[in-house]
Amino acid sequence: MTASHPLPRTLEEYITVIDDGVPEWLSRKILAEYGGDGPWEAATVDVATDRPSVRNCHMVNLTSEARCSGQARRRVLEQNVSQLVRSWMVAYHERVLPIGLEDHTGIGLIRYRTGGYYLAHRDAHEDQHRVVSAVAVLHTDFAGGELEFFGGEPTIALRPGQVCLFPSSFQYPHAVLPVTAGTRYSLVTWLR
After folding, report:
1. Nearest Cα to Cα of residue 136 among 79, 56, 54, 191
2. Which CATH architecture describes the domain 12-43+55-191?
3. Domain-wise residue ranges, the chain
4. Sorting pLDDT into bands at 50, 70 and 90, what band is 47?
5. In terms of Cα–Cα distance, which of 58, 59, 106, 105 is closest to 78?
6. Quick check: pTM over 0.85?
């Protein structure tokens, strides 16, 4: 590490928020394509179970070949989002830690309606190499739905367009607190 890029000293310093992480025009395109009653599925905690007692939200896999197949506008949308994710990798490298992020494990669009939540969990998995988690909130009106780390400190209320980047490791338990009004749409991915 050079003097211009010191190593973070606390766990909280590995968490960063980018203010203009998702441009409004891209949020509008994503919501126009997927915001209705489209291909939503109950989000699961693992591949085998739907556990609404732990996670109460719905998801669309934006990078699924089946989802994009034969639909040019969805392929273009996925390319726009992938390009955006690459900019998040660069931002984490520049702001927090130069660790050579090069790819992502897929991109999901998550919908939390009023009452939706995700209890404390970790993003590290044996079967997927995840280094940095990314949660971006699209330009929608909602209340609640804050990201809570370490059981309450810090709690981050992401504004529309912001993205939060943080390590995926077991040291970063986090939750999405209940949405109290409206619908919170977010992009999620894991960088490696």
Report:
1. 191
2. Sandwich (2.60)
3. 12-43+55-191
4. very low
5. 106
6. yes
